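Notes to self, Nicotinate-nucleotide--dimethylbenzimidazole phosphoribosyltransferase:
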Amino acid sequence: MFSVKALDTRSRELIEKKINLKTKPLGALGELETLAKQLVTIFSQGIEPEQLSAFRPQISKPTLTVFAGDHGIAAKGVSIAPSEVTAQMVANFASGGAAINVFSKQLGWQLEIVDCGILSEPDQALGVTSQRLGSVTRSFDECEALTQAQEAQGFEFAKKLVHKQYQQGCNTFAFGEMGIGNTSAASAIFSALSGLSAEYTVGLGTGVSNEVVDKKVELINTALNLHRDKLNDPHAILRCLGGFEICQMVGAMLAVAELQQVIIIDGFIATAAALLAIRIEPNSQSYMVFAHCSSEQAHLQMLNSINAKPLLDLGLRLGEGTGAALSLPLLQSALAFYNDMNSFDDANVTKVV
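result:
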């Protein structure tokens, strides 16, 4: 369903040269220079190298989509909150009262909330986008969480949504999530992809007790054993262990990569979706910017497994796309210095490179 092209890197040396000739010591802007190189390379796809000098890349209508879905595994006590909280938080997002609303308003994100399949269908008056695959996934320790038809429908929904946002002028896409029990799903996915047992991939989630952690470990190891013959394929891993919102995040990431636009990856659950997207279409990683490292136990291991360096490390563990939202000023700063900072020749400053 997706075909992701490798980045055209013919202009990379020209981009690096322009950055290196800015009025600063070589590499003095650190990771901001690395970010600028990646962003300019992505935004300049389709532009010939000889046209690069006149090109001024800009972030356009950055859009953050929060995908929400309920998990069957939540009924077995893997979270501090009941599944009803998913719908309650979706209503909070829709009314503008959550952290992601505050940050989106402050920083200039377009925000869209998507019901991928929560237990209580939101009132249409709330303005939540309906892309329901059901009301709750099946419990992954008993059977596959999603059917093949649900996965395919989730990908189709996500692709249409991304294309709508792209046609509205968006070139920078971020994805958040809401779903009680989805840290368990993300831990299970990472275990399946990495070969690590649940003891190494399960953390405290939203702040559960050690007894709940032990329960999560037990259920995930049961699921890994149950599905072990299917876990050599990323689509099967998604169906066996994932969630409706994780499915649509994977599809959305692949759709953005197919369009050769920028993908901002949020925290633990979003990174689990990104790992699946990369396993399905390896070229998709080139379009991904990893916003932050959360305090969830295995998130750093996830990032290290694909040599990804996050922009921020603030100890966040909220989800909703909050870490992705907070990264936007860094993206804007990277492009601002690339576009507007003088070169040594422009400023009549002696070169120090």
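- The chain has two domains: 12-59+334-347, 63-330.
- The CA atoms of residues 30 and 36 lie 10 Å apart.
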